[in-house]
Design brief:
The protein is an alpha+beta fold and 372 residues long. The chain is built from 10 helices and 20 strands. The site of uridine-diphosphate-2(N-acetylglucosaminyl) butyric acid has 21 residues, from helix 4, strand 13 and helix 8.
Protein backbone atom coordinates (compact mmCIF):
# COMPACT_ATOMS: atom_id res chain seq x y z
CA UNK A 1 0.00 0.00 0.00
CA UNK A 2 1.49 3.34 -0.88
CA UNK A 3 0.62 6.84 0.20
CA UNK A 4 -0.96 7.38 -3.22
CA UNK A 5 -4.17 5.85 -1.83
CA UNK A 6 -4.41 8.72 0.64
CA UNK A 7 -6.36 11.78 -0.36
CA UNK A 8 -3.97 14.53 0.67
CA UNK A 9 -5.39 17.98 0.16
CA UNK A 10 -3.38 21.17 -0.05
CA UNK A 11 -3.93 24.55 1.50
CA UNK A 12 -6.99 23.60 3.55
CA UNK A 13 -8.51 26.24 5.81
CA UNK A 14 -8.51 25.10 9.44
CA UNK A 15 -10.80 27.86 10.64
CA UNK A 16 -14.05 25.93 10.38
CA UNK A 17 -12.44 22.81 11.79
CA UNK A 18 -11.90 24.53 15.13
CA UNK A 19 -14.43 25.51 17.78
CA UNK A 20 -12.93 29.03 17.92
CA UNK A 21 -13.48 29.34 14.15
CA UNK A 22 -10.09 30.99 13.90
CA UNK A 23 -6.89 30.07 12.08
CA UNK A 24 -5.10 29.97 8.74
CA UNK A 25 -4.63 27.02 6.38
CA UNK A 26 -2.87 23.70 6.70
CA UNK A 27 -0.27 23.28 3.97
CA UNK A 28 -1.38 19.65 3.67
CA UNK A 29 -4.43 17.98 5.16
CA UNK A 30 -5.54 14.37 5.29
CA UNK A 31 -8.39 12.42 6.85
CA UNK A 32 -7.35 9.05 8.28
CA UNK A 33 -10.09 6.46 8.67
CA UNK A 34 -7.94 3.57 9.83
CA UNK A 35 -4.49 2.58 11.01
CA UNK A 36 -3.20 2.12 7.47
CA UNK A 37 -4.16 5.70 6.58
CA UNK A 38 -2.33 6.95 9.66
CA UNK A 39 0.81 4.98 8.82
CA UNK A 40 0.75 6.26 5.25
CA UNK A 41 0.19 9.84 6.38
CA UNK A 42 3.28 9.66 8.62
CA UNK A 43 5.24 8.11 5.74
CA UNK A 44 4.22 10.99 3.47
CA UNK A 45 5.31 13.50 6.11
CA UNK A 46 8.62 11.67 6.58
CA UNK A 47 9.38 11.59 2.87
CA UNK A 48 8.57 15.28 2.50
CA UNK A 49 10.15 16.43 5.77
CA UNK A 50 6.89 17.85 7.01
CA UNK A 51 5.91 18.73 10.54
CA UNK A 52 2.77 16.95 11.72
CA UNK A 53 -0.19 18.06 13.71
CA UNK A 54 -2.86 15.55 14.69
CA UNK A 55 -6.18 17.36 14.80
CA UNK A 56 -8.80 15.96 17.13
CA UNK A 57 -12.17 17.70 17.21
CA UNK A 58 -10.66 21.18 17.25
CA UNK A 59 -12.59 21.95 20.42
CA UNK A 60 -9.58 22.76 22.57
CA UNK A 61 -7.11 24.56 20.40
CA UNK A 62 -6.16 27.89 18.92
CA UNK A 63 -4.61 27.85 15.44
CA UNK A 64 -2.33 30.67 14.30
CA UNK A 65 -3.58 33.11 11.65
CA UNK A 66 -0.71 31.85 9.50
CA UNK A 67 -2.04 28.32 9.79
CA UNK A 68 0.16 25.23 10.02
CA UNK A 69 3.08 24.78 7.66
CA UNK A 70 3.05 20.98 7.58
CA UNK A 71 0.66 18.03 7.42
CA UNK A 72 -2.51 18.05 9.50
CA UNK A 73 -3.87 14.55 10.09
CA UNK A 74 -7.49 14.24 11.10
CA UNK A 75 -8.12 10.72 12.46
CA UNK A 76 -11.71 9.65 11.91
CA UNK A 77 -11.70 6.18 13.41
CA UNK A 78 -15.24 5.07 14.19
CA UNK A 79 -16.97 2.24 15.92
CA UNK A 80 -18.41 1.16 19.24
CA UNK A 81 -18.12 -2.40 20.42
CA UNK A 82 -19.03 -4.18 23.67
CA UNK A 83 -15.95 -6.27 24.42
CA UNK A 84 -16.76 -7.59 27.87
CA UNK A 85 -19.71 -7.80 30.21
CA UNK A 86 -20.34 -9.27 33.63
CA UNK A 87 -22.96 -8.71 36.34
CA UNK A 88 -21.50 -5.37 37.39
CA UNK A 89 -19.58 -3.93 34.46
CA UNK A 90 -19.47 -3.39 30.73
CA UNK A 91 -16.33 -2.62 28.73
CA UNK A 92 -16.78 -0.64 25.54
CA UNK A 93 -14.17 -0.16 22.84
CA UNK A 94 -14.83 3.15 21.07
CA UNK A 95 -13.11 4.67 18.03
CA UNK A 96 -11.22 7.90 18.76
CA UNK A 97 -13.12 9.71 16.00
CA UNK A 98 -16.56 9.17 17.53
CA UNK A 99 -18.39 12.22 18.88
CA UNK A 100 -17.96 12.25 22.66
CA UNK A 101 -21.41 13.44 23.70
CA UNK A 102 -23.15 10.93 21.41
CA UNK A 103 -21.24 8.24 23.29
CA UNK A 104 -22.31 9.66 26.66
CA UNK A 105 -25.95 9.76 25.49
CA UNK A 106 -25.66 6.17 24.22
CA UNK A 107 -24.23 4.83 27.49
CA UNK A 108 -26.81 6.68 29.60
CA UNK A 109 -29.58 5.18 27.45
CA UNK A 110 -28.05 1.76 27.99
CA UNK A 111 -28.16 2.36 31.76
CA UNK A 112 -24.38 2.44 32.13
CA UNK A 113 -22.85 4.70 34.80
CA UNK A 114 -19.56 6.59 34.55
CA UNK A 115 -19.73 9.10 31.73
CA UNK A 116 -22.83 11.06 32.82
CA UNK A 117 -21.01 13.93 34.58
CA UNK A 118 -18.96 14.45 31.43
CA UNK A 119 -22.10 15.09 29.36
CA UNK A 120 -22.23 17.77 26.68
CA UNK A 121 -18.49 18.34 26.45
CA UNK A 122 -17.68 19.16 22.83
CA UNK A 123 -15.10 16.96 21.15
CA UNK A 124 -14.22 13.47 20.07
CA UNK A 125 -13.46 10.35 22.07
CA UNK A 126 -9.68 10.51 21.45
CA UNK A 127 -9.42 13.86 23.22
CA UNK A 128 -10.89 12.43 26.41
CA UNK A 129 -7.85 10.43 27.63
CA UNK A 130 -5.48 12.79 25.81
CA UNK A 131 -6.35 15.69 28.16
CA UNK A 132 -7.85 13.61 30.94
CA UNK A 133 -11.03 15.57 30.34
CA UNK A 134 -12.76 16.51 33.57
CA UNK A 135 -15.92 18.24 34.70
CA UNK A 136 -18.42 18.29 37.57
CA UNK A 137 -16.42 16.12 39.92
CA UNK A 138 -15.26 13.40 37.57
CA UNK A 139 -12.54 12.86 34.99
CA UNK A 140 -11.54 10.49 32.20
CA UNK A 141 -9.13 8.74 34.57
CA UNK A 142 -12.12 7.25 36.44
CA UNK A 143 -13.60 5.47 33.41
CA UNK A 144 -10.74 4.76 30.99
CA UNK A 145 -9.62 1.15 31.19
CA UNK A 146 -6.95 1.36 28.47
CA UNK A 147 -5.90 3.32 25.39
CA UNK A 148 -4.90 1.74 22.08
CA UNK A 149 -2.46 3.91 20.12
CA UNK A 150 -0.17 4.12 17.12
CA UNK A 151 3.41 4.80 18.25
CA UNK A 152 4.92 7.22 15.77
CA UNK A 153 8.49 6.48 16.91
CA UNK A 154 8.44 2.68 16.92
CA UNK A 155 5.89 2.61 14.09
CA UNK A 156 3.64 0.07 15.75
CA UNK A 157 0.48 -0.12 17.83
CA UNK A 158 0.51 -0.31 21.62
CA UNK A 159 -1.93 -0.48 24.50
CA UNK A 160 -1.57 1.56 27.67
CA UNK A 161 -3.47 0.51 30.77
CA UNK A 162 -5.05 3.25 32.88
CA UNK A 163 -2.17 3.46 35.36
CA UNK A 164 0.33 3.77 32.49
CA UNK A 165 -1.46 6.79 31.03
CA UNK A 166 0.02 9.15 33.68
CA UNK A 167 -3.22 11.03 34.15
CA UNK A 168 -3.10 14.39 35.92
CA UNK A 169 -5.13 17.60 35.84
CA UNK A 170 -5.85 18.03 32.11
CA UNK A 171 -2.81 15.88 31.47
CA UNK A 172 -1.65 12.45 30.36
CA UNK A 173 1.57 10.97 28.94
CA UNK A 174 -0.05 11.59 25.53
CA UNK A 175 -0.07 15.39 25.85
CA UNK A 176 2.80 15.83 28.27
CA UNK A 177 5.86 13.58 28.72
CA UNK A 178 5.48 11.93 25.32
CA UNK A 179 3.57 14.65 23.51
CA UNK A 180 3.17 13.93 19.79
CA UNK A 181 4.48 10.37 20.08
CA UNK A 182 1.12 8.57 19.96
CA UNK A 183 -2.02 8.79 17.87
CA UNK A 184 -4.99 7.51 19.84
CA UNK A 185 -6.94 4.92 17.83
CA UNK A 186 -9.40 3.38 20.30
CA UNK A 187 -10.29 3.90 23.94
CA UNK A 188 -11.66 1.17 26.19
CA UNK A 189 -14.05 2.44 28.83
CA UNK A 190 -15.16 0.55 31.91
CA UNK A 191 -18.70 1.44 32.94
CA UNK A 192 -20.93 0.24 35.76
CA UNK A 193 -24.41 -1.26 35.61
CA UNK A 194 -25.33 0.36 38.92
CA UNK A 195 -23.99 3.61 40.29
CA UNK A 196 -24.22 6.33 42.85
CA UNK A 197 -24.97 9.80 41.47
CA UNK A 198 -21.99 12.13 41.88
CA UNK A 199 -23.56 15.39 43.13
CA UNK A 200 -20.54 16.75 44.99
CA UNK A 201 -19.89 19.66 42.63
CA UNK A 202 -21.48 22.91 43.82
CA UNK A 203 -23.47 23.64 40.63
CA UNK A 204 -24.80 20.07 40.57
CA UNK A 205 -25.74 20.14 44.25
CA UNK A 206 -27.58 23.44 43.75
CA UNK A 207 -29.39 22.16 40.66
CA UNK A 208 -30.89 19.19 42.49
CA UNK A 209 -31.73 21.27 45.58
CA UNK A 210 -33.66 23.67 43.37
CA UNK A 211 -35.43 20.78 41.65
CA UNK A 212 -36.19 19.05 44.97
CA UNK A 213 -34.48 15.83 43.85
CA UNK A 214 -32.52 13.85 46.43
CA UNK A 215 -31.71 10.64 44.58
CA UNK A 216 -31.38 11.40 40.87
CA UNK A 217 -31.42 8.68 38.24
CA UNK A 218 -28.70 8.30 35.64
CA UNK A 219 -30.86 10.17 33.12
CA UNK A 220 -31.51 12.96 35.68
CA UNK A 221 -27.76 13.34 36.11
CA UNK A 222 -27.18 13.76 32.38
CA UNK A 223 -30.07 16.19 32.14
CA UNK A 224 -28.67 18.27 35.01
CA UNK A 225 -25.18 18.47 33.54
CA UNK A 226 -26.49 19.38 30.08
CA UNK A 227 -28.66 22.09 31.64
CA UNK A 228 -25.78 23.51 33.72
CA UNK A 229 -23.38 23.58 30.77
CA UNK A 230 -25.96 25.12 28.44
CA UNK A 231 -26.61 27.88 30.96
CA UNK A 232 -23.02 28.70 31.81
CA UNK A 233 -20.93 27.97 28.79
CA UNK A 234 -21.33 29.43 25.31
CA UNK A 235 -22.37 26.97 22.58
CA UNK A 236 -19.47 26.71 20.09
CA UNK A 237 -22.04 26.13 17.31
CA UNK A 238 -23.30 29.67 17.95
CA UNK A 239 -20.24 31.58 19.08
CA UNK A 240 -16.66 30.47 18.55
CA UNK A 241 -14.87 29.42 21.76
CA UNK A 242 -12.59 26.69 23.08
CA UNK A 243 -14.10 26.32 26.55
CA UNK A 244 -11.88 27.40 29.41
CA UNK A 245 -8.94 29.38 28.03
CA UNK A 246 -7.01 29.22 31.32
CA UNK A 247 -6.14 26.36 33.66
CA UNK A 248 -7.29 26.28 37.25
CA UNK A 249 -4.78 26.64 40.08
CA UNK A 250 -3.53 24.38 42.84
CA UNK A 251 -1.67 26.55 45.35
CA UNK A 252 0.52 25.70 48.32
CA UNK A 253 0.13 27.47 51.71
CA UNK A 254 2.71 30.14 50.91
CA UNK A 255 1.21 30.99 47.52
CA UNK A 256 -2.21 31.14 49.12
CA UNK A 257 -0.96 33.54 51.78
CA UNK A 258 0.53 35.82 49.10
CA UNK A 259 -2.73 35.64 47.18
CA UNK A 260 -4.68 36.76 50.26
CA UNK A 261 -2.30 39.65 50.92
CA UNK A 262 -2.63 40.88 47.35
CA UNK A 263 -6.39 40.41 47.19
CA UNK A 264 -6.79 42.35 50.47
CA UNK A 265 -4.67 45.15 49.06
CA UNK A 266 -6.36 45.32 45.65
CA UNK A 267 -10.04 44.52 46.24
CA UNK A 268 -12.68 44.87 48.96
CA UNK A 269 -14.06 43.00 52.00
CA UNK A 270 -16.68 41.16 49.96
CA UNK A 271 -14.16 39.62 47.55
CA UNK A 272 -11.89 38.65 50.45
CA UNK A 273 -14.70 36.88 52.30
CA UNK A 274 -15.75 35.05 49.11
CA UNK A 275 -12.16 33.90 48.68
CA UNK A 276 -12.11 32.61 52.26
CA UNK A 277 -15.28 30.65 51.52
CA UNK A 278 -13.72 29.12 48.39
CA UNK A 279 -10.53 28.25 50.26
CA UNK A 280 -12.46 26.43 52.98
CA UNK A 281 -14.58 24.57 50.48
CA UNK A 282 -11.87 23.54 48.05
CA UNK A 283 -9.07 22.55 50.40
CA UNK A 284 -7.55 19.19 49.49
CA UNK A 285 -4.42 17.33 50.70
CA UNK A 286 -2.65 17.99 47.39
CA UNK A 287 -3.10 21.75 47.73
CA UNK A 288 -5.76 24.42 47.60
CA UNK A 289 -7.77 24.59 44.41
CA UNK A 290 -8.47 28.20 43.53
CA UNK A 291 -10.71 28.77 40.52
CA UNK A 292 -8.91 31.01 38.04
CA UNK A 293 -12.36 32.26 36.99
CA UNK A 294 -12.71 33.84 40.44
CA UNK A 295 -9.48 35.80 39.99
CA UNK A 296 -10.38 36.95 36.46
CA UNK A 297 -13.96 37.80 37.42
CA UNK A 298 -14.15 38.94 41.07
CA UNK A 299 -10.58 40.11 41.65
CA UNK A 300 -9.91 41.71 38.25
CA UNK A 301 -13.48 42.55 37.23
CA UNK A 302 -12.87 41.34 33.71
CA UNK A 303 -16.07 39.36 33.05
CA UNK A 304 -17.66 40.69 29.86
CA UNK A 305 -14.49 42.65 29.00
CA UNK A 306 -14.01 43.07 25.25
CA UNK A 307 -10.92 43.79 23.21
CA UNK A 308 -11.24 43.90 19.44
CA UNK A 309 -13.42 41.04 18.26
CA UNK A 310 -12.82 38.97 21.38
CA UNK A 311 -14.73 38.95 24.64
CA UNK A 312 -14.53 37.37 28.08
CA UNK A 313 -17.75 35.42 28.38
CA UNK A 314 -20.54 36.97 30.47
CA UNK A 315 -21.29 33.93 32.63
CA UNK A 316 -17.90 32.17 32.74
CA UNK A 317 -14.79 34.30 33.00
CA UNK A 318 -12.39 31.54 31.89
CA UNK A 319 -13.91 31.43 28.44
CA UNK A 320 -12.75 33.73 25.65
CA UNK A 321 -15.27 34.03 22.82
CA UNK A 322 -14.89 34.96 19.17
CA UNK A 323 -17.62 37.55 19.65
CA UNK A 324 -17.38 39.18 16.23
CA UNK A 325 -17.15 35.82 14.43
CA UNK A 326 -14.16 37.34 12.65
CA UNK A 327 -11.63 37.48 15.46
CA UNK A 328 -8.03 36.59 14.74
CA UNK A 329 -5.68 34.38 16.74
CA UNK A 330 -3.63 37.50 17.39
CA UNK A 331 -6.66 39.14 19.02
CA UNK A 332 -7.24 36.08 21.21
CA UNK A 333 -3.61 36.05 22.34
CA UNK A 334 -3.67 39.82 22.96
CA UNK A 335 -6.67 39.50 25.26
CA UNK A 336 -5.25 36.38 26.91
CA UNK A 337 -2.00 38.24 27.61
CA UNK A 338 -3.95 41.16 29.05
CA UNK A 339 -5.84 38.80 31.39
CA UNK A 340 -2.61 37.07 32.45
CA UNK A 341 -0.95 40.42 33.27
CA UNK A 342 -3.99 41.78 35.13
CA UNK A 343 -4.26 38.63 37.25
CA UNK A 344 -0.53 38.74 37.96
CA UNK A 345 -0.65 42.44 38.88
CA UNK A 346 -3.57 42.01 41.28
CA UNK A 347 -2.76 38.61 42.77
CA UNK A 348 0.93 37.84 42.17
CA UNK A 349 -0.21 34.59 40.55
CA UNK A 350 0.73 33.40 37.08
CA UNK A 351 -2.02 31.74 35.10
CA UNK A 352 -1.58 29.70 31.93
CA UNK A 353 -3.57 28.93 28.79
CA UNK A 354 -5.37 25.62 28.66
CA UNK A 355 -6.01 24.99 24.92
CA UNK A 356 -3.27 23.74 22.64
CA UNK A 357 -1.65 26.59 20.68
CA UNK A 358 -0.85 25.46 17.13
CA UNK A 359 1.34 27.00 14.44
CA UNK A 360 2.77 29.84 16.55
CA UNK A 361 6.47 30.56 16.89
CA UNK A 362 7.99 30.87 20.36
CA UNK A 363 8.63 34.56 19.60
CA UNK A 364 4.94 35.15 18.86
CA UNK A 365 3.83 33.40 22.03
CA UNK A 366 6.46 35.26 24.06
CA UNK A 367 5.31 38.58 22.61
CA UNK A 368 1.67 38.18 23.63
CA UNK A 369 1.68 35.90 26.63
CA UNK A 370 4.16 37.83 28.71
CA UNK A 371 3.71 38.87 32.35
CA UNK A 372 5.98 41.90 32.04
N1 LIG B 1 -16.36 31.69 39.19
C1 LIG B 1 -16.35 33.07 39.22
N2 LIG B 1 -16.69 33.72 38.07
C2 LIG B 1 -17.03 33.08 36.92
C3 LIG B 1 -17.06 31.67 36.91
C4 LIG B 1 -16.72 31.01 38.08
O1 LIG B 1 -16.05 33.69 40.24
O2 LIG B 1 -17.28 33.76 35.93
C5 LIG B 1 -15.94 30.97 40.44
C6 LIG B 1 -17.09 30.56 41.33
O3 LIG B 1 -16.62 30.64 42.67
C7 LIG B 1 -17.31 29.10 40.98
C8 LIG B 1 -15.90 28.64 40.67
O4 LIG B 1 -15.27 29.79 40.08
O5 LIG B 1 -17.87 28.37 42.04
C9 LIG B 1 -15.81 27.47 39.72
O6 LIG B 1 -16.47 27.79 38.49
P1 LIG B 1 -17.08 26.68 37.53
O7 LIG B 1 -17.89 25.73 38.32
O8 LIG B 1 -17.75 27.35 36.40
O9 LIG B 1 -15.81 25.87 37.02
P2 LIG B 1 -14.33 26.28 36.62
O10 LIG B 1 -13.41 25.80 37.69
O11 LIG B 1 -14.21 27.70 36.22
C10 LIG B 1 -13.76 23.98 35.48
C11 LIG B 1 -13.28 23.48 34.14
C12 LIG B 1 -14.43 23.44 33.14
C13 LIG B 1 -15.52 22.53 33.69
C14 LIG B 1 -15.98 23.08 35.06
C15 LIG B 1 -16.96 22.17 35.72
C16 LIG B 1 -10.94 24.10 33.96
C17 LIG B 1 -9.93 24.99 33.31
N3 LIG B 1 -12.22 24.33 33.64
O12 LIG B 1 -14.12 25.35 35.31
O13 LIG B 1 -13.95 22.87 31.94
O14 LIG B 1 -16.62 22.45 32.81
O15 LIG B 1 -14.84 23.19 35.94
O16 LIG B 1 -16.34 21.03 36.19
O17 LIG B 1 -10.57 23.22 34.73
C18 LIG B 1 -13.01 23.35 29.79
O18 LIG B 1 -12.00 22.74 30.17
O19 LIG B 1 -13.10 23.84 28.65
C19 LIG B 1 -14.13 23.51 30.71
C20 LIG B 1 -15.22 24.22 30.41
Amino acid sequence: MSEISLKIEENVSLKNLTAFRIGGPARYFVKAENLEDIENAFKFADENSLKIFVLGSGSNLLVSDDGFDGLVISPEIKGIEKIEENNDEVKLKIGSGENWDEMVAYTVNEGLWGMENLSYIPGKVGGVPMQNVGAYGTEAKNIVESVFVYDVVEKKTKTFQNEECEFGYRESRFNKREKKRYVILYVIFKLKKTGIPNMKYLDVENYFKEHGVTNPSLKDMREAIVWIRKNKLPDPAKVGNAGSFFKNLILNEQELEELFENVKKNTNEKVVSELIEIRNKLFSPSGIKIPTAFLVDKVCGLKGFQMGGVKIHNTQALVLVNESGKATAEEILSLAGHVMREVYKKTGIKIYPEPELVGFTDEELGKYLTMG
